[in-house]
Design a protein that fits this description.
- This protein is mainly beta and 350 residues long.
- Helix content is 0%, strand content 51%.
- The strands form seven sheets. Strands 6, 8, 9, 11, 12 and 13 form a six-stranded mixed beta sheet that branches. Strands 15, 17, 18, 19, 20 and 21 form a six-stranded mixed beta sheet that branches.
């Protein structure tokens, strides 16, 4: 008896049973056998998932001894697909919905997000990891509408999961770069804009000593403002705003602030620094005399380390840096040229 297979449908097998023959001689075939081929066995009333015998009988012959071999009816279960459940994710991020599958790999599933649907074929992993993203302040309902396994059995499952997307978190803004003298505390990094999010808002601070390539959490720093310790090398800080809603943490970071240390060799006004001289003409302009190469730049700070201006310099022996409306005080001018930094302490009067 030929073996058969069907997908579970709660009904008895309604297909046609067949047999194959072997052992005829002299060119003879089925026509030399008498009787009527029939079938019996447990398959006749079988409706549940499992394997059931198909037993052939009823043939006769004067010249052949007939040996019957049973076949099997296999009723395969319908595959299922179950989503792991509702999720809340951060705007701009992604999440994973797990799809737990039953049946025999490989599977294919039909997935809908309420707007579009797609078929994902050749799934061998179980559970399958379905990556989802979303638009801020929105939610999508993901549905597994259909699943098919390698037995060819399909099932419409309609399992659903809602993915809610929290609003965007904005980082806000913190005060800018600083220059400090060696061994001196920097000014506190203040909050110019606290940032926004929903739920509970907390802060953290991170530091980097490699120009922002790697960041580390600053211990015990959880306020919107931060007072750094005395640096012994250039260091970068940034603030992390954390929004907690529905037990989901969403975060964003500010632009980093760099705290630099003034060079130990600072020249006073009119002093020669390798043939480079800096001077101020009241509070109108500063002048640089001496050879300047290509791509040189100047940065001007007040005595508290606040950046006043940045200017790209002209190649040659004379540069003017306009400084209108500077207040009376001491200023620090740094000139960077071909990787070398030269510093000048320059008094300015209105």
């Amino acid at each position: 008896a030929e073996s058969k297979a069907k997908c579970f449908d709660g009904k008895v097998f309604g297909g046609k049973n067949n047999v194959t023959y072997s052992g005829f001689v002299n060119g003879e075939d089925r026509s030399v056998l008498g009787g009527i081929l029939s079938f019996k066995g447990s398959f006749i009333t079988a409706t549940n998932v499992g394997a059931y015998t198909i037993v052939p009988e009823g043939l006769s012959s004067e010249n052949y001894q007939i040996i019957y071999q049973d076949g099997l009816l296999t009723i395969n279960p319908l595959p299922t697909a179950t989503l792991s459940g509702d999720l809340v994710i951060c705007a701009g991020s992604y999440a994973i919905l797990e799809v737990k599958l039953t049946g025999l790999a490989p599977w294919s599933i039909t997935v809908s997000d309420g707007i579009t649907s797609r078929i994902i074929d050749s799934i061998y992993e179980n559970p399958y990891r379905l990556e989802v993203t979303g638009v801020p302040n929105s939610s999508k309902t993901y549905t597994i509408a259909k699943v098919t396994d390698s037995n060819g059995c399909s099932n419409e499952v309609e399992d659903k999961a809602v993915v809610k997307v929290n609003p965007l978190v904005t980082s806000g803004e913190i005060s800018g770069d600083q220059h400090v003298a060696s061994g001196v505390f920097p000014r506190p990094i203040t909050s110019l804009n606290p940032g926004q999010g929903i739920g509970t808002i907390t802060y953290a601070w991170e530091s980097s000593v490699d120009d922002g390539l790697n960041w580390e959490i600053v211990p015990d720093a959880s306020e919107a403002t931060f007072a750094p310790g005395i640096p012994d090398e250039p260091i970068w800080f940034r603030r992390v705003i954390i929004s907690s809603d529905n037990n989901v943490l969403c975060s964003e970071v500010t632009e980093p602030v760099k705290i630099s240390i003034w060079p130990t060799a600072i020249n006073t006004q009119e002093n020669n620094s390798d043939l480079l001289i800096a001077s101020a003409v009241k509070n109108i302009e500063m002048r640089l005399k001496g050879e300047i190469g290509k791509l040189a730049s100047a940065r001007l700070y007040d005595v508290q380390g606040r950046l006043i201006l940045v200017k790209n310099l002209e190649e040659g022996s004379f540069n003017i840096i306009p400084t209108p409306y500077l207040k009376t005080g001491i200023y620090m001018l740094f000139v960077e040229d071909s990787g070398t930094i030269k510093g000048f302490k320059i008094p300015v009067k209105e």
